[in-house]
Structure formats: structure tokens, C-alpha cells
Specification:
The protein is an alpha+beta fold. It has 13 helices and 28 strands.
Length: about 650
């Protein structure tokens, strides 16, 4: 509950009542001191007060209305709350301040006595505790609201990122609308939200053949791998040698058997043994091979599917795909990359070389890849077994092939290294052409790999429907908002929307045109640095005090520049504000002397971080905002000063 201000109105003969801002919406009881028909002062318990021309309208506790000439109302004093009622701290402080500033004759009244003042001061502690509790509850509520929003955002990210999931038009629209709300509320990583919406804008509803109609194009981007020429030549040689070797082996074996039958034992053994050796060598080459360990299906794992799609898209982008991170085991990572290297369906080279689909085994930190190769158009494949170590995260693209086997026959290192280099070149070219060179993989503590892919493609410009755009204040509708600039507040009054702000609290921002300090006594418009102004002995300096709407209360005034109807901010402070001829504003030290650096440089913009209450327009046509505090111990937390040009550059 906030009531803000109850005024001492003792000097009505000076015409000050008509200028006094009132908290007309206060729910608390007040005591109005009025002059009765007999001339004696009477007390009226009232709930509200209203200025009607040169009269004061008082609303009594029974709901009745009484009109009095302004000169007959001596004071409106705060009434102590009933037992159990706790006021806000600002309300208590305002009541104490007002009672302390009353003239001596009014302090004789029971409502303004020292004892009553002490009772108000005793209310500060429970008010402080209630205020602290309220702030803590508001803080917890705000934190809880943020947590809930972040949980919703996390769920939305997970759902929106699955662009391969078939969805209906209604489901896609729901995702889009929810994403727009996150953008409007600035929830979480707004750039990531925008990226997800950009991807969703490319997705078709399942009724129209979605999700991504041209996903097959990504497979066309990556050329299929073709065998190394050396492999083809060796394969053709093995086929030729095997054919003639089989004939020679069978011939020698048959000749050896014939010789043994004829009694030529030595010749039979030599020819028969040589034939069997040739046949055994051919069997070692052609005998079906299998790896040792776990046989991996030669397919891309679900955890690597998105990575493969993103990699292919990076070569010749078909879609806009944002940067993404995913996790996969080393097994899934290695097998998926090799499985994505599809052999060419067409034969190549003069010997018509062609790779066939192979098989893959994984054991501990080693991998084995059985890769069949055909040549000369003969459908019978020659199988090479390539073996190597599973690459680490830092060098995953460096597929080290350590040895090559032809069937069960391991080739000598000198010869095998030639095949290794050829096959390694084939694999590396396939990985590079598929965009896998752009993958960044990091080994994590749990043994998995963190896989990162950069964004690719051009971000589409998707349409934001009218109902999802941020609602701007309609010229025909008044929209109260707490954070507002001086220029905007003036425009609302000019549109006739001032009543929507009167009595409500705002946080203002604007240019300070000039200041009037309640401690000024010189009456001069400007002050000089380190030079005091001479006082005019013929002028009563007390008459030069800025009386304003507060009677004898000398508050400070900040006048904010708006271009039309000015705004006067009535500041509660202990400072002395002084303006020099350059319109720079200083913190004293006295009304007509300045020192040090300016507090507010001319041309700088200020944002008042403590709220003030919007009052009626005074007789000078100024919008008044009352009750802004500038305390010495927390000045930096209550006002922000900045160069508007630098802010615009950012």
C-alpha cells in the first residue's frame, strides 16, 4: 500500500493550494483541519481530497462530500494506522518528513505532536521488515518465473531443432508462435531461437510432403568415392594371376598324381607339391575373411545423422542450417563417417575398377575394414582388409591405415605401405568432398566426443505474422508503462491519455534542461566556478526560495526537455544542484558556487532509476512527477547518466 504524500497547507493566502499535488487515490484515512462556520478549526476524517477550482472537495469516511474554500482548509494530516496494519516504508518516511516540516502552530495539535511523531518513527522497523520481505518475495517470484521460462525454452529448442520430424501445418504454426513469444520476451539465447525459426521456415508440413522436400539433394552434393588406380591394377593382376594360377596349380597337381601312378615318385612329389602350393596360395587370397571383435552395421548411427547432413550441406548449401553441437561415441563416430563414404556405382578407369560395399569391425582401439574391389568387369571381388587405430578427437580426420591384407595374406610393409597411402588418399578425398573436414571433435571426460558443426547456407528471411509482432501503443489507446521517456510521457498527455498516468509511478529518462535547488538563496540563474555571488542587501533572500508546490518545503526540481509540454521532476535529496552558463549541472557545494567535474554534462541523457508519481499538470502547463529520491549513499544506483550518441553507436 502506497500513499506517498500528505501535505501541510498552511499558507493558502499565497495561493499555493491550487498548485499542490495530491495523492487522490490514497486508501488511508487523513485528518483535514478546516475552518468551520464559527471560525473555529474543526477536524474532519476524510478518505480523499480533490481540487475543484478554488475549492477543496473532501470525501468523508461515510461517503459524503463536503466543499470548502481553499483558504478554509488549514492542513491535511496523516492519521496513524489501525493496529495490525503495516505501511510501506516509503509511506512511513513520507509521513515522518511531513510532520517534521510542519509549522510550529500545527505541531501543537495531537495529530502532529512529538508523541505522534515518535509513534510514526516506531513504525519504521516493521515497515522496513515488510519492505525487505516483499522485495525478497518479488525476487524469488521473478527467479522462479525465469526458471519456468527457461525450462519451456529448453523443451522448445529440443522440439524445434528436430527439423526431420514430419509435422502437420498446425504443429509447425504452434512452434513458430511459441518461438516468437520467446523472441519478444527476450528469453534465453534469442539468436539461437531466431536460428531455429529460420530452419523451421524451410520445413514443409507433412500434408505437402515435408519436412525438407529436397533432402535427397544433399546426397548429390557429395561425390561417391572411386578406387585408387593402384588398387584397380593390383585387383586386375590378382584376377589374371588367379585364373592362370588355378590352371597351373591344377595342371601341376594332376601331373604330380599321374607321375606317382607311373612310379616316378620324385617327379610326382615335386609337381604335386608345387601344384598344391599354388592352390593353397590362391585359397589364402580368396578364402572369405572376417574381422575380429564387434561387427558394425555399415550405416550412419542416429546420433551422427544430423552431423552427416550438416557436413554435406556445408559443401554446396541447399538449406540454411545453424551451428550445432552433438555427442557420439568413438564407435558411432568412426563407423558413421566411413558408412557415409558411399562407393561409386559406376566403374572407372581403363580396367573398369569399382568398389563394393564393405564390412567393418571394431575391437578396443583398432578398426578393420574389409573392402571388396572388382576390375575388368568381372563381378567376382578381390577383398582387401585395411586395419588401423581409431583416431583421437584432435586428429580424427587422420585415418591411419597401418597394414593391408589380401585375404589371409598380409602384405609386406614395403608393399603394404603403398596400398595404405593409396587407400588413405581415397578416404581423405571422400571425407573432404563430403564436408567432414569442417567437423570439430573434442574428447570429453566421459569418453564421448563433443562434435561441433559451423552454420552453413544463407539464413532465410521468414515472415513474422502481424499478431506475433511486438505490440506498439496505439494512438487511439492509452497504454500505461512504468519505464518511459520524457518525450513519450509528454506525447501521451498531448493525445489526451494523461489520466492513465496520473497517480501512477514511472521511471523517467530524458535530457535535463535546467535545475532549481531547494537550497538556493542567491536567485541567480547560473553560478561560476569557485566564485561566490554577492548578495543583494536590498532583496529579502527568503522570498527567493523556490517555493513551488510544496509551500515551505524546498525540494529540488529537474526540468526535462521534451520539445513541447515540459516535465518537472520534484526530487527528494540533500544535494545542492547548480547550473553554470554552459548548462552543465554540478553538485554544489553551494547554490552559487561550483567545483570539480560536472554531475550532468550538457547534452547527456539521464535515466532516473527511482520511481516518481505522475501528478496533474500545474498552472504553468508543466507535467509534474513527484517523489524521486537521490540519496547520498546510493546515488549511482538511483541515476544513470550517459552519452546518447555513444549508446546509438552500440
Amino acid at each position: 500500500m502506497r500513499w506517498g504524500l500528505y501535505l501541510c497547507l498552511g499558507l493558502f493566502s499565497a495561493g499555493l493550494w491550487a498548485e499542490a499535488p495530491m495523492d487522490l487515490e490514497s486508501p488511508f484515512l487523513k485528518i483535514a483541519v478546516v475552518r468551520g462556520a464559527t471560525g473555529a478549526l474543526e477536524e474532519r476524517e476524510v478518505t480523499k481530497a480533490k481540487i475543484v477550482g478554488d475549492k477543496i472537495e473532501l470525501i468523508t469516511t461515510k461517503g459524503g462530500v463536503a466543499l470548502f474554500p481553499a483558504t478554509d482548509v488549514s492542513a491535511v494530516l496523516p492519521k496513524l494506522p489501525s493496529a495490525g496494519v503495516v505501511y510501506q516504508l516509503g509511506d512511513v518516511d513520507e509521513a515522518i518528513r511531513m510532520l517534521e516540516s510542519l509549522p510550529t502552530d500545527l505541531k501543537q495539535r495531537p495529530e502532529a505532536s512529538i508523541e505522534t511523531l515518535q509513534k510514526w518513527k516506531d513504525l519504521r522497523k516493521p515497515a522496513e521488515e515488510a519492505d525487505a520481505k516483499r522485495r525478497e518475495e518479488e525476487k524469488k517470484a521473478a527467479e522462479e518465473k525465469v526458471k519456468v521460462e527457461l525450462v519451456r525454452l529448453s523443451s522448445w529448442f529440443k522440439e524445434a531443432a528436430d527439423f526431420q520430424k514430419p509435422r502437420s501445418e498446425e504443429e509447425l504454426e504452434k512452434l513458430r508462435v511459441e518461438g516468437q513469444k520467446f523472441l519478444r520476451n527476450k528469453t534465453g539465447d534469442t539468436a539461437k531461437v531466431y536460428d531455429c525459426l529460420a530452419v523451421l521456415s524451410q520445413v514443409l508440413p507433412k500434408e505437402k510432403g515435408g519436412p525438407l522436400p529436397d533432402l535427397a539433394k544433399l546426397s548429390e552434393v557429395q561425390p561417391n568415392i572411386v578406387p585408387d588406380d593402384l588398387l584397380v591394377w593390383v585387383t586386375a593382376g590378382i584376377l589374371i594371376v588367379s585364373f592362370f594360377g588355378l590352371l597351373i596349380g591344377l595342371s601341376f597337381t594332376s601331373s604330380g598324381v599321374t607321375r606317382l601312378r607311373e612310379g616316378a615318385v620324385l617327379g610326382g612329389v615335386v609337381f604335386g607339391g608345387l601344384g598344391l602350393a599354388i592352390l593353397a596360395g590362391l585359397a589364402a587370397i580368396w578364402w572369405p575373411m572376417s574381422g575380429v571383435g564387434e561387427n558394425i552395421s555399415f550405416a550412419i548411427s542416429p546420433s551422427m545423422e544430423r552431423t552427416v547432413i550438416f557436413a554435406k550441406n556445408s559443401i554446396k548449401p541447399v538449406y540454411y542450417l545453424p551451428s550445432v553441437e552433438s555427442k557420439a561415441s568413438g564407435l558411432e563416430f568412426a563407423s558413421s563417417l566411413l558408412a557415409s563414404l558411399t562407393p561409386s556405382a559406376d566403374s572407372s578407369g581403363m580396367l573398369k575398377g569399382k568398389l563394393k560395399e564393405g564390412t567393418f569391425w571394431l575391437k578396443a582401439d583398432a578398426w578393420m575394414w574389409n573392402q571388396p574391389v572388382t576390375a575388368l568387369g568381372i563381378p567376382i571381388p578381390v577383398s582387401f582388409m585395411f586395419q588401423g587405430k581409431i583416431p583421437k578427437a584432435a586428429v580424427w580426420s587422420d585415418l591411419s591405415i597401418e597394414k593391408v591384407s589380401l585375404g589371409w595374406l598380409t602384405l609386406p610393409e614395403s608393399i603394404g605401405s603403398i596400398f595404405c597411402d593409396g587407400m588413405k588418399s581415397t578416404l581423405q578425398s571422400g571425407l573432404s568432398s563430403g564436408g567432414f573436414a569442417s567437423i570439430k571433435a573434442t574428447q570429453m571426460d566421459d569418453g564421448q566426443l563433443l562434435i561441433s558443426m559451423q552454420a552453413s547456407g544463407t539464413k532465410p528471411k521468414f515472415e513474422i505474422k502481424e499478431e506475433d509482432k511486438e505490440v506498439k501503443p496505439d494512438a487511439t489507446k492509452a497504454v500505461y508503462r512504468k519505464m518511459i521517456t520524457a518525450e513519450e510521457l509528454t506525447q501521451e498527455f498531448q493525445k489526451g491519455h494523461g489520466k492513465e498516468f496520473i497517480g501512477k509511478y514511472v521511471l523517467l529518462e530524458g535530457f535535463v534542461e535546467r535545475v532549481e535547488s531547494g537550497s538556493e538563496v542567491s536567485g541567480v540563474p547560473v553560478a561560476s566556478k569557485q566564485v561566490g555571488k554577492k548578495k543583494n542587501k536590498n532583496i529579502d533572500e527568503s522570498s527567493l526560495l523556490p517555493q513551488g508546490e510544496f509551500g515551505q518545503n524546498t525540494y529540488d526540481s529537474f526540468y526535462l526537455r521534451t520539445g513541447s509540454k515540459p516535465i518537472r521532476c520534484l526530487i527528494k535529496s540533500q544535494f545542492v544542484f547548480v547550473q553554470d552558463e554552459r548548462k552543465d549541472i554540478y553538485l554544489g557545494p553551494s547554490a552559487d558556487t561550483i567545483s570539480g567535474e560536472p554531475f550532468i554534462k550538457n547534452g547527456y541523457r539521464v535515466k532516473l532509476l527511482t520511481e516518481g508519481r505522475v501528478e496533474e499538470v500545474n498552472r504553468y502547463g508543466e507535467i509534474e512527477v513527484y517523489g524521486i529520491r537521490l540519496d547520498p549513499e546510493s546515488l549511482k544506483e538511483q541515476i544513470q547518466i550517459f552519452d546518447p550518441n555513444e549508446v546509438q553507436k552500440k
